């Protein structure tokens, strides 16, 4: 395989399938903070992340947001897949967490891959299962966990994604991802800093 071959952490594509993905897919790069897909947008292709990561959000009518899951290298967005397959508009908002490269596969080719490559269908089912479990975790956290527990879990998740214990983020963004108020996040961060769990700087957080 060449450097252009899609290398998926959870999708070990055969040479033939990798060649087809690169033949039909369109590669694009986005910087952190860019919106890849917005709510109510038409879905013409599904994204396969080959580098970096994306966070998938759900926005309420009052403007509040809630983090649903992250899409890492080797993964795709099952919500986009299902919406595009049924010719529905997007129900989620996908924002670049860290600089990302994406292979966009047109929806008409998605159906073709399902029919011709069992490996592709297996990949989609595995993603669906993983996302379902992650959404169950979100429901459980919102229903039964305190905000401070959810905040700390989110910070550790970001460390896992970036591989760096120091990362740039605002209190507002953390509040949006947790679906809570900024003042609540600011208070909890001060508390965690006093406990020696982390250090805060200007739009930066370092886990200790």
Structure overview:
- Helix content is 44%, strand content 27%.
- By secondary structure, the chain is of the alpha+beta class.
- It folds into two domains: 15-142, Sandwich (Jelly Rolls), CATH 2.60.120; 145-207, Winged helix-like DNA-binding domain superfamily/Winged helix DNA-binding domain (Arc Repressor Mutant, subunit A), CATH 1.10.10.10.
- The strands form two sheets. Strands 1, 2, 3, 4 and 5 form a five-stranded antiparallel sheet that branches. It has a three-stranded antiparallel sheet with strand order 6-8-7.
- A hairpin with a 2-residue loop joins strand 7 (198-201) and strand 8.
- The protein is elongated.
In short, what is this structure?
This protein has 208 residues and is α+β, with helices and mostly antiparallel strands. The protein contains seven helices and eight strands, in the order αββββαβαααβααββ.
Task: Please describe the topology of this protein.
Elements: H1 15-24, E1 26-30, E2 35-37, E3 45-59, E4 65-72, H2 78-85, E5 93-106, H3 107-116, H4 118-144, H5 147-162, E6 166-168, H6 171-178, H7 182-194, E7 198-201, E8 204-207
Helix pairs in contact: 3-4, 6-7
Notable traits:
Arc Repressor Mutant, subunit A, 208 residues, 2 domains, Jelly Rolls, alpha+beta, 44% helix
């Amino acid at each position: 395989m060449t450097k252009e071959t899609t290398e998926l952490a959870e999708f070990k594509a055969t040479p033939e399938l990798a060649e087809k993905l690169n033949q039909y897919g369109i590669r694009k790069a986005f910087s952190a903070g860019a919106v890849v897909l917005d709510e109510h947008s038409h879905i013409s292709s599904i994204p396969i992340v080959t580098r970096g990561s994306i966070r998938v959000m759900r926005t309420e009518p009052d403007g509040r947001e809630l983090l649903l899951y992250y899409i890492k290298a080797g993964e795709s967005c099952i919500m986009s897949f299902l919406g595009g397959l049924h010719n529905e508009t997007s129900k989620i908002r996908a924002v670049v967490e860290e600089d990302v490269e994406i292979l966009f596969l047109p929806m008409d080719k998605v159906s073709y891959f399902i029919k011709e490559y069992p490996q592709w269908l297996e990949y989609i089912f595995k993603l669906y299962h993983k996302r379902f479990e992650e959404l169950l975790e979100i429901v459980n956290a919102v229903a039964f966990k305190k905000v401070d527990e959810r905040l700390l879990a989110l910070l550790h998740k970001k460390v896992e994604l970036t591989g760096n214990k120091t990362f740039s983020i605002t209190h507002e963004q953390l509040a949006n991802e947790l679906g809570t108020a900024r003042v609540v996040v600011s208070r909890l961060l001060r508390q965690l800093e006093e406990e020696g769990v982390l250090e805060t700087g200007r739009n930066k957080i370092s886990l200790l």
